[in-house]
Amino acid sequence: MDYSNKYSKLGKSLEPSLIGQILKYAGDPEAISFGGGIPDASTFPSEELAEISRELILENAGYVLQYSSTVGDIKLRKQILKLLYEFYGIEGLNEENVMITVGSQQALDLIGKVFLDEESYFVIDDPAYLGALSAFNTRFSKFITVPLLEDGIDTEYLEEKLREFEKTGEIQRVKFIYVVSNFHNPAGITFSLKKRKRILEIAEKYDLFIVEDDPYGALRYEGESIEPIFKLGGPERVILLNTFSKILCPGLRIGVITAQKEFIEKVSLAKENAVLCSSPLTQRLAAEYLERYDLLEKLKPTIELYRKKKDVMLKALEDEFSNLEGVRWTKPEGGLFIWLTLPDGFDTLEMTEIAKEKKVFYVPGQAFRPTGEISNSMRLSYCLPPEEKIVEGIKRLRETVEIYASKKSLTIA
Ligand SMILES: *Cc1c(COP(=O)(O)O)cnc(C)c1O
Q1: CA 170 to centroid of ligand 1, rounded, Å
Q2: Residue nearest to atom 5 of ligand 1 (CA)
């Protein structure tokens, strides 16, 4: 049967991502990949989780193998409130402000479903987190793209756009501003306190809400942590998304929405339609882990591992690229990504053909652009390759850049 003539509008629009197509060849043992943004599996606390799972299944099967509440395991929500206090200093919330999702990805999907129609707009940065973009795009909404600068989104540009919407009487259609405030994926930058405050002011002025996605906040390698917008604006204005994917392990599929009670009630109805409930087994596993161990303490070796790899990559970039005119890169204080920008005229998607021959992989910036425009940037992740491969990979990348430049008669030296 040919299903294609039965597809819905959404079904027709679903296409494999650019990232998948490019990283198809990255599994070659000779290849060095800076492509995937997934955590290093050696950081997963497998012994601890194995022990807790055994206990839970043998002693509490009637709960952990049963259906569970949509909003999430109560023990886990209580542990999360503790963590929100310990990590961000967020106080004054209770369990009704917290909902568990199947990873943050489900939170993004549910927010799209509950708030976006075809005539709606959302505000997203350029470059943007692909998971958010693809979740929101299933609603066929419109978006306002705001350039990302070194200290966060360009708020002047955003205000100018919103003023236009106000003039034409369309401001009601703009629903929310989506931001990744710490160690941005893909750009590696962190929003300054000033930017955070400004974004909040803008949201208040134009009556929008903010979706603050912070999967990496606890993976800070250096510098001072900055208050989340959620703490500045409170649950009336800001929806905070967290996940265990980057700080414990992604396979548990546990994300967290922290928000106003009324918001949680509405979004949990959408979750019920989608999945009935999250797995009580993985939720309890996480809850017990948090009860028995100090997560922030346990994260220290992980932070050390990534910090070292990040420094190795920054040094390699300095060695290979500092004498090339117009090449720049971000210096992340945490998270998993560096954003490398080549001079105008480079097309990093087209350049993947050469990179493939050199057996080095990255994600071209175009993959992260809401509008899909060509890009002279790329995302480099340092979390997976061993240190010597990082150095070798950056060498290959430099060769790739030089070959591409000479093919295109671009000057870089
Ligand atoms: C990795 C990541 C997530 C996590 O998604 P999960 O579904 O929780 O695994 C969310 N947002 C951003 C910006 C990310 O980089």
Answers
A1: 31
A2: 104
Distance from the CA of 400 to the center of ligand 1, in angstroms? 30
Which atom of ligand 1 is the closest one to the Cα of 184? 13
| Beta strands 254-258; 98-102: pairing state | antiparallel
Atom number of ligand 1 nearest to Cα 104: 8
Q: Which atom of ligand 1 is nearest to the CA of 180?
A: 13
Distance CA 145, CA 128 (A): 9
The answer to whether residues 356 and 349 touch, using CB atoms and an 8 Å cutoff, is: no
Quickly tell me which residue has 């080095």 as its tokens: 360
> Rounded to an integer, what distance in angstroms lies between the CA atom of residue 340 and that of residue 124?
20
Q: pLDDT tens, position by position, for the chain (413 residues)?
A: 999 999 999 999 998 887 777 777 777 899 999 998 889 999 999 999 999 999 999 999 999 999 999 999 999 999 999 999 999 999 999 999 999 999 999 999 999 999 999 999 999 999 999 999 999 999 999 999 999 999 999 999 999 999 999 999 999 999 999 999 999 999 999 999 999 999 999 999 999 999 999 999 999 999 999 999 999 999 999 999 999 999 999 999 999 999 999 999 999 999 999 999 999 999 999 999 999 999 999 999 999 999 999 999 999 999 999 999 899 999 999 999 999 999 999 999 999 999 999 999 999 999 999 999 999 999 999 999 999 999 999 999 999 999 999 999 888 87
Q: Whose CA is nearest to atom 14 of ligand 1?
A: 215
Ligand 1 pocket by Cβ (under 6 Å): 103-105, 129, 131, 180, 185, 213, 215, 243, 245-246, 250, 255
Candidates 205, 303, 319; CA nearest to 246 is 303
CA of 108 relative to ligand 1 center, distance in Å: 9
